[in-house]
């Protein structure tokens, strides 16, 4: 495993291109595009203001930079560095911007969610979508890029409109049986759209492409409801994480619950492996020490290293009592993600912030728990194999695969606190992002 040097970063804006050839990062108002394998700078672009969001086009030829404070989006071309485009929403303002799947249209959401403006880079034409809903996940594209669903709110009712992305024609428009629609997400096969209600109402609705309601699922009433959802890559399962610290798995045939995964503070099953991170002081051969030690040696001497021990069950995990009289209490399933081969589901229960739970989807059983020393900030699956990268806000990266797990110290001077991760599409490298810096970790195929 090798690490690059540290590079400056702002706003956690570091992204590999979809084709894997480039890595884009932002430093204040500058956009830096590097070669993903050598990290040599290929292009350097200067924007009008501090960049708040970046996104690659699907063909990796263009990159969008949004400056929400100014209401401006700038688009840069990698093929023709002299060409660039500026979209100014003017007094309408800007709160969100994204590419359409064809990589030739940009969708801008104006302030107060008055409308979504669709700008064409090819014809310079403009279309408008009215009444978009101000919710966490209000636009969803099918994986094949053919259709777009938009959550809408008009006359105090929730609606969903489905558009054909090739010409932006309206295909279907229907109302949803929700109190306050919170998000929409397509199944990977593009056949089913999940729409879920605000956390005050446990309700998830499943619609077909033509707007028919296929099923409604409610687990309970009169308590905080859905916190997160994830489709399995095969579209066979829908995992719903909720505030009651459980994940419920629905199947794609009847849309009924096939099982629920609990996240108790004590892991009791002898069939579950619990990996506990423990600190170990690095051993140093005193004869080889020069005094005063070099900076690099000093930082590696005094940074505490860690490894995983396998704990004997039952194991009590560190549990926090949430403050329930505040908005957005730290409780329930805040993160969940399926592995690319459909075999595993990783979850995090916000009541037990230091643990990652890995479930065997074939057996529908808890397989592994990773108990970290610090709270888990982020985890992401390798796009090519069941290998999970975890970061906890320190200078280590943790990797788990069915073969075992490792804790790796990033060999950097100073304070490098990893709070986010971004895998390369090949799974051969992963970008480790902190608030002010990033580095790239290169992995060998056989590692872990």
From TrEMBL:
InterPro entries: Centrosome-WD_assoc, WD40/YVTN_repeat-like_dom_sf, WD40_repeat_dom_sf, WD40_rpt. Pfam families: WD40. It comes from the Eukaryota. GO terms for cellular component: microtubule organizing center; MWP complex. This is WRP73 protein.
């Amino acid at each position: 495993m090798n690490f690059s040097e540290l590079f400056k970063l702002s706003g956690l804006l570091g992204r590999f291109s979809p084709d894997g050839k480039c890595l884009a990062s932002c430093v204040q108002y500058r956009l830096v595009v590097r070669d993903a394998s050598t990290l040599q700078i290929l292009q350097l672009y200067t924007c009008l203001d501090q960049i708040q969001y970046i996104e690659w086009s699907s063909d990796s030829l263009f990159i969008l930079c949004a400056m929400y404070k100014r209401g401006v989006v700038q688009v840069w071309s990698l093929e023709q560095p002299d060409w660039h485009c500026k979209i100014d929403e003017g007094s309408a303002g800007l709160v969100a911007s994204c590419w359409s799947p064809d990589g030739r249209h940009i969708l801008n959401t104006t302030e107060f969610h008055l409308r979504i403006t669709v700008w064409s880079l090819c014809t310079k034409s403009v279309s408008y979508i009215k009444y978009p809903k101000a919710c966490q996940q209000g636009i969803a594209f099918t994986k094949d890029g053919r259709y777009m669903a938009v959550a809408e709110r008009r006359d105090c009712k929730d609606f969903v409109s489905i558009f054909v992305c090739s010409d932006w024609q309206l295909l279907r428009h229907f109302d949803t049986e929700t109190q306050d629609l919170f998000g929409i997400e397509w199944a990977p096969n593009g056949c089913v759209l999940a729409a879920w209600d605000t956390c005050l109402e446990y309700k998830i609705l499943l619609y077909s492409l033509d707007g028919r309601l296929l099923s409604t699922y409610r687990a309970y009433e009169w308590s905080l409801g859905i916190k997160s959802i994830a489709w399995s890559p095969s579209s066979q399962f829908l995992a719903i994480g909720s505030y009651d610290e459980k994940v419920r798995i629905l199947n794609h045939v009847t849309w009924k619950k096939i099982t629920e995964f609990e996240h108790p503070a004590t892991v009791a099953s002898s069939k579950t492996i619990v990996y506990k991170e423990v600190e170990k002081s690095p051993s140093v051969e005193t004869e080889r020490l020069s005094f005063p030690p070099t900076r690099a040696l000093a930082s590696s001497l005094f940074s505490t290293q860690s490894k995983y021990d396998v704990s004997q069950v039952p194991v009590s995990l560190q549990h926090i009592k949430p403050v329930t009289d505040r908005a957005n209490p730290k409780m329930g399933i805040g993160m969940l993600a399926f592995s690319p081969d459909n075999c595993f589901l990783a979850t995090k229960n916000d009541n037990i912030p230091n643990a990652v739970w890995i479930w065997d989807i074939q057996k529908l059983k808890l397989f592994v728990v990773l108990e970290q020393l610090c709270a888990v900030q982020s985890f992401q699956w390798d796009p090519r194999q069941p290998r999970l990268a975890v970061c906890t806000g320190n200078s280590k990266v943790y990797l788990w695969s069915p073969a075992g797990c490792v804790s790796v110290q990033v060999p950097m001077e100073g304070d490098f606190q990893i709070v986010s991760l971004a895998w390369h599409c090949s799974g051969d490298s992963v970008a480790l992002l902190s608030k002010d810096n990033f580095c790239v970790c290169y992995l060998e195929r056989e590692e872990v």
